[in-house]
Amino acid sequence: METTQHIIARCKKLISQPEYRNEYLIRIKEKYLGIIGYFSNYIPEEIIAAAGFYPLRIIGCYEPSKPSPHSLYIPVCSFARDMYSAASSGGLSYLSQVVFPNSCDSMRVFAQMWEHAVNFPPACVLLHPINDNSNAIQYFAEVIERFAGKLHQDGGNLITQTRLKETIDTYNQTRRLLRRLYDIRKINDTFLAGSDAVALMTAGLIMARDEYNQILSQIVNQGPREIHKDRKLKRIMIMGPLMDNYGFLSKIEEFGGYIVYDNITNGSRYCDLDVEIEGNLYENIARRYLTSGPSPTLNSDKEISDQSFQALIDDLDLDGIIFINQKFCEPHVHKYLAEADILKQMNINVLMLEIEHGRVEVDERDMLRIESFLEIAGRS
Amino acid sequence: MKYVLGIDAGSSYIKLVLIDEQQKTVARNIIKRGADIDASCRESYNTLLNTSPIDKNDINGIMATGYGRKQVTFCNEVITEITALSVGGFTVAPDVRTIIDIGGQDSKVIAVDTSGKVVDFVMNHKCSAGTGKFLEVTSASLGVTIEDLGRLSQAADTRLRLSSTCTVFAESEIVSYIARGVKKENIIKALHAAISGQIVGLFHQVNSVDDGKILLAGGVALNEGLVHELSGWLNREVLVPEYPQYTGAYGAAIYLQRKRKDRKTD
């Protein structure tokens, strides 16, 4: 049996070594109708998988910095720039399609640029709504059903109810296992470092789902049941958009932090809710994707000032929260500005960091910010 | 008597402060940083020992802080400059609630509560706008020493405005002012205003700073023209300790001493 240490090392390789990732994906591509890449948590991967395609969440390319693509509108976020750079240099050639979300200006500009300058593989935009009320859910269910029809046309596989149920079940299993992982890490800080947990969760967005569920199940089943909380470690929650830079997170741990929880796209926001398996499946998927969150790109009723968030903070026994934003990600900056004040009123120490997506090196001043923050963070 | 040493290995200068059990400074030393931070710190340490009556064996702890703190091989512990400055500033003036440090490569604004605990801090971003380096580079293009900036700015008779706080762009702007025959005193005042504007921006990002006094730390605080300008921009009095450039080193020494006392009490 593969050890946890070995699994984590493999996950890190998948994230940070594009060549290794590409080899893995090219190998796996044979078994599917093709690989469909997507850029956001709003793209229902169950539908892609049920249609016989391989859903792949596209993350950082982690390649040495390339010259800025001149054709890309400058104020797009560093994630879009990084992806554009990877796509225009052929780094995403294993994809047969890409799906863009309708989540922010950066993504909309990126989708337009893809059409004009990259043009391969073909792209589509999934027009998800920005509300989570019943009308929005109904509308999104129709969008998803049309998307399923498009995939049927593209690949020839009809998405039957049985097939969709099976796929939903597989993806729900991942979510349940990830939630168990969070529960274990909440009570025991010796089990898995936060940077390792993020690497494990991020690799799940790349790996074949059956393989992933199997390794996740193995790790979770080995998890300790006893409580262990080292009072010397500062218990930190990270917040922000996609955060796949586990090396950056390991700096927080180096300075005495324990990342006990997150509110990031590839973390708790990915697995917080299951898709209901009874009733109208398209509507269930729409509901799950729109009510998961709260995301800054959605006009959700869920607020950080909600009692549930306060209860989570208490449950986690937090010392502080670190917002890690990708440069020029406007929705998350706005979210931070609104939420930081609320958190400070709750007497929670908050630090904001802005990093360049896909950049491996950690800026010296960010290290100082992290170290200083961990010196002052604490339960008052 | 036992002594504790604080080392602030800054990006421009190495500052050392030796304190006694009553937190009184008994010796201090400052030198320009060389390429080898550890060697510079050792040189400063040796000078301090040679010029003070304190025996090396009576120094029972060394705490390093500052940008080069992790390069100091002969210290017992390290802390960040945020903590060191807050401890140093608060010890010097316990009614202080905001500590501003204009360092060689970055500027910091730190908010402390009534017990001196840091409640928030901000630092400038990547470029050298609003830092000591900005003054260093621009004073060189004016052909004056950094020590003369304060005195010269007091003789300004017109308020000029630099349109950029970027060190590179500001330098070009200064060159064009010189070419137009503008008095250097007025240009220097404009430099101080540019830095003050940057600091005020950071100041307003920190919460809990509405009350209490403001202390300016770092060698730049010796520039009375800048202190006057900053005070005007903040519309508040800005305190300057007697030896502002040693605030971080002093704080590091105090921090270590307190830590050792706490350990004994435990």
Describe this structure in words.
The complex is a heterodimer of chains A (380) and B (266). Chain A is α/β, with parallel strands linked by helices. Chain A has a domain at 4-161: Rossmann fold. Chain A is built from 15 helices and 8 strands. In chain A, helix 3 (45-50) links the parallel strand 1 and strand 2. In chain A, 46% of the residues are buried. By secondary structure, chain B is an alpha/beta fold. Chain B has 2 domains: 1-93 and 242-266, ATPase, nucleotide binding domain (Nucleotidyltransferase, domain 5, 2-Layer Sandwich); 95-240, Nucleotidyltransferase, domain 5 (2-Layer Sandwich), CATH 3.30.420. Chain B is 40% helix and 21% strand. In chain B, strands 3-2-1-4-5 form a 5-stranded mixed sheet, with helices on both faces. In chain B, strands 8-7-6-9-10 form a 5-stranded mixed sheet, with helices on both faces. In chain B, helix 3 (132-142) packs parallel to helix 5 (167-179). Chain B is globular and about 65 Å long. The two termini of chain B are 22 Å apart. In chain B, 50% of the residues are buried. Classes of the chains: A alpha/beta (380), B alpha/beta (266).
Structural class by sheet pairing and helices of chain B:
alpha/beta
What would you call the shape of chain A? globular
The number of E-state strands of chain B comes to 10
- Unreliable spans of chain B are none
Number of domains of chain B: 2
Head-to-tail CA distance between termini of chain B: 22 Å
CATH superfamily of the largest domain in chain B: ATPase, nucleotide binding domain
Strand fraction band of chain A? 5-15%
Arithmetic mean of pLDDT of chain A: 89
Quickly list its features:
heterodimer, A: 380 residues, alpha/beta, Rossmann fold, four-stranded parallel beta sheet, B: 266 residues, Nucleotidyltransferase, domain 5, five-stranded mixed beta sheet, 10 strands, 40% helix
